[in-house]
Write a structure and sequence with these properties.
Number of domains: 2
Function: Involved in peptidoglycan biosynthesis. Transports lipid-linked peptidoglycan precursors from the inner to the outer leaflet of the cytoplasmic membrane.
Pathway: Cell wall biogenesis; peptidoglycan biosynthesis
InterPro entries: Lipid_II_flippase_MurJ/MviN, MurJ
Number of helices: 18
Family: Belongs to the MurJ/MviN family.
Structural class: mainly alpha
Shape: globular
Main location: membrane
Low-confidence stretches: none
């Protein structure tokens, strides 16, 4: 069931990331790494910050276990709590958006202090952020509806929803920019996309017979429990997202760095979303049910499978991105206002991010274990520790490596975060990295991934010039052939070493 659900989520996540990449290509070709691009990227990230806090972060983590508990009693009870929490969310977000509209100049000054040196850039960023910030209401509500559907194992709709954003941004901008400036057009298109996304999700919630009335009842014991758990969970998600914005704030002092890191993050999000977010999405509802019936053996087995699968996919992806970062960026982004120098800088950033890819994936697997046990305080403590390390590393490494140092600092902090999650997760029987089976499995994986890397290096040595051929078709085919060949070597090695068979085995050992 885990992997069948995972395939569904992974497929639609991959599809959404392809459309997301098309959206980034559209933005990159229009704005490159100019000050316009920096302003647009901040305007995109600001509502996403609160979406991840209220929508996909704290809200989902706290809401799904409560919703699942209600489902065990009756669907009516589940619908009732959904309506109460949904109404509470809307009122909170509307208030928040109004306050942010008022104080947007101060918010932008905090998020991107380096922009203040360029008055035109600073004022444009304030304007586009004011236009895009209402998107947080629609996307956070969409995320709550997605949590409801995920709880009943209907994963496809929420995984598909981001495609609506990408398509609407591209088409909406092309239409609107005939009448208004491109930065304003793309900002309005984001808000239109948010409205379409929530309507899309409401349709599937009604179709699943999980519709609910909008009611307020803060005296309900479940609502009180929700609010009690939301405080540390919100702080935890907020601190984590603050972590990302501190990196952006630091990057704002380097011309073009905000856009460079944003483009690098888009490529990096491909494997992270498909692997990490897929597991995070399906593990929380599954684990919350397992822990409710106190089946620790089954929980351990599920964790073990997820960790092995996450490592199996993230380790070769990490090495592949590092080795092929420059041709990947060159082929995907280098056109229009995006120049060869931008390719080199973006490739350097994505290579630094890729070092932390397995860590980011593992954190997506470990975090639901805490939330499934209604533990929101431990993740908060861990996130604060990680944020402190990340900020220190970003500031120190930026002095020596510019934008690369910011990405590298994030990767190192990600590994520290995983170590903390593993350490504090022992109380919930988290699979130990020091177990013999996990260590042997990881060593086999590393051997297979290094074999793949050797083949890629050989291909690059003899045929690397074709990555930069004048014909887009030839260089795209060369890159595709290299990736496919490397993947084949990895999978063949995995078969020989028994890695693939171990992943598919239904009898997962608890030792």
């Amino acid at each position: 069931m885990l992997f069948r659900s995972g395939i569904i989520v992974a497929f639609f996540t991959l599809l959404s990331r392809i459309f997301g990449l098309a959206r980034e290509l559209f933005i990159a070709s229009m704005f490159g790494t100019s000050y316009l691009a920096d302003s647009i990227n901040v305007a995109f990230k600001l509502p996403n910050l609160f979406r991840r806090i209220f929508g996909e972060g704290a809200l989902s983590a706290v809401f799904i276990p409560i919703f699942n508990e209600k489902l065990l009693h009756s669907s009516a009870a589940a619908r009732k709590i959904s309506g109460e929490i949904f109404t509470l969310l809307l009122l909170t977000l509307i208030t928040l958006v109004v306050l942010m509209e008022i104080f947007m100049p101060s918010i932008v000054l905090i998020l991107a202090p380096g922009f203040h040196k360029n008055l035109e850039k600073f004022e444009l960023t304030i304007l586009v952020c004011r236009i895009t910030i209402p998107y947080v209401i629609f996307i956070s509500a969409t995320a709550l509806l997605g949590g409801i559907l995920n709880s009943v194992k209907q994963f496809a709709a929420f995984a598909f929803a981001p495609i609506i954003l990408s398509v609407t941004v591209i088409i909406g901008t092309l239409i609107l920019q005939q009448y208004i400036s491109s930065p304003i057009a793309i900002s309005i298109a984001v808000v239109i996309a948010g409205i379409l996304q929530i309507l899309f999700m409401l349709y599937f919630v009604f179709k699943a017979n999980l519709s609910f009335p909008l009611t307020i009842n803060i005296h309900d014991s479940d609502v009180k429990k929700f609010l009690l758990n939301m405080i540390p969970a919100t702080l935890s998600s907020g601190v984590y997202q603050l972590n990302l914005f501190i990196s952006q704030s630091i990057a704002s002092f380097i011309p073009g760095a905000v856009s460079i890191l944003s483009y690098a993050d888009r490529i990096y999000q491909f494997p992270l979303s498909i692997i990490g977010i897929t597991f995070g999405t399906i593990l929380l509802p599954e684990l919350s049910k397992i822990y409710k019936i106190n089946d620790l053996k089954k929980a351990y087995q599920l964790q073990n499978k997820a960790i092995k699968a996450g490592l199996f996919l993230s380790i070769p992806a990490s090495l592949g991105i590092i080795l092929l970062s420059e041709p990947i960026i060159h082929i995907i982004f280098e056109r229009g206002a995006f120049l060869a120098d931008d390719t080199i800088k973006t490739a350097q950033a994505i290579s630094a991010f890729a070092i932390g890819l397995p860590a980011f994936v593992l954190s997506k697997i470990f975090m639901p274990i805490f939330y499934a046990n209604n533990d929101t305080k431990t993740p908060l403590k861990i996130t604060i520790y990680s944020l402190t390390i990340n900020t220190i590393l970003n500031l120190l490494l930026m002095l020596f490596f510019d934008h690369i140092g910011i990405a590298l600092g994030s990767s190192i902090a990600a590994w520290y975060n995983v170590w903390l999650l593993h350490k504090y997760g022992k109380v919930y029987h988290v699979v130990p990295f020091t177990s013999k089976k996990i260590m042997i499995f990881t060593l086999k994986l590393l051997f297979s991934a290094l074999s793949m890397s050797l083949i890629i290096l050989i291909i690059n040595h003899y045929y690397g010039s074709y990555f930069y051929h004048e014909s887009l078709l030839i260089k795209s085919l060369t890159l595709s052939a290299t990736i496919i060949t490397g993947a084949l070597v990895f999978f063949i090695s995995s078969l020989i070493l028994g890695i693939y068979q171990e992943l598919l085995s239904k009898n997962e050992s608890t030792i």
